[in-house]
Amino acid sequence: MDTIASLFSFITTPVSWVIVQFHTVYGAIFGPDTGWAWGLSIVSLVILIRICLIPLFVKQIKSTRAMQTLQPEMKKIQERYKNDKARQSEEMMKLYKETGTNPLSSCLPILAQSPFFFALYHVLNGIATGDTIGVINKSLLESAQKAHIFGAPLAAKFTDSASKVESLGASLTDVRVVTAIMIVLMSASQFYTQRQLMTKNVDTTVKTPFMQQQKMLMYVFPVMFAVFGINFPVGVLVYWLTTNVWTMGQQMYVIRNNPTPGSKAQAAYLERLAKHVTTHGKTRNRREKAIVKAIVTKGRDRNEHERKFINGLSKAGLAAQTDGTVVKSEGQAAVQTEDGTVTTTTATAAKRQQPKRQSKSQRQSGTAKAAGETEPKPSTPPSLTKSEPEDAKPAAKKADAKPGAGGRSKAQSGQRKGPQRPKSPSKK
To answer: How many CB atoms lie within 10 A of CB 352?
Structure first.
């Protein structure tokens, strides 16, 4: 490890300088020889490095999303060349090249941190051996050797002998207990971060080698941290535990606010967004507008969660526009009641209600009743009847000759109204 760390000796001077500057600030508060001053200096170094790596983290997210977009194409290649692994790998590499994606992009933050990690290891190893490195002079070296975190010196390791630990002013039991707890926390945080990515922010409808790779990393990285962690000084364990916690929090923020399409995280996000939009009738910021715009642009290619979101807006009387805004639809209007619920009222005229369709037995009973029961017509005296002109009689006969007129009795309830459909079309 010393040989590997020496390869990054060019960066030990900047790393040691940053630690000394933070130590000057925290030493004035907690004391220069305390573990709080040196431990918080290492934590602040991690935060500074991770802030500088945010652009790289954004690039990693974009590349990961591009890989997830290619999953259907990757699945087709996998099924087409399932009996030819060489051709399958060739077509995969060709797809990566055409789309400009890189399957190793998820490892970029870890690779970028490697020089700082080995430089810090080299600095702490120098503190343990009593060697001045970078800008750490002899007085700072003595101060760092006196610093303890929960009874364990910064430069102590799990594998150190009892005599070496005693030379640093600590007991072997304290060092092993503290390092073991920190190794377990470091591995657990790494496992939870990767598991969170696999269970919440991955489109589970498509199975590809990329998902298998991520699933493998979920178990490989914690094991690597547990194996190599026993050879790390306490200060390096503080560094790596801090960066794991930062990664976990950063990923939780991304999953909550910018989830992968088709994932469980997207379903939860669209549910929260729909609740807000139906309550206030608009989107809050540019990011929400961009998400709504992307969903509208997809059209029929929307996934199940996106279709549910659009249908929810329609039921609330709202319509998503192509520019990402949300407006009230023309056919419906959303009304918010006093208890906060949202109901819809139809703005257009109500549709004409059709009569209920009756069964065949009900129609036959109605027909029989109409045939058997005839209402008696009231008799009128001859003196009150008016004589019709002769010219009107032929017209009345013609009217009686039309189908569905005159001689047929009035339809009772349950019968179809209007003229019956003729068996053959009539000629006009």
So the answer is: 5
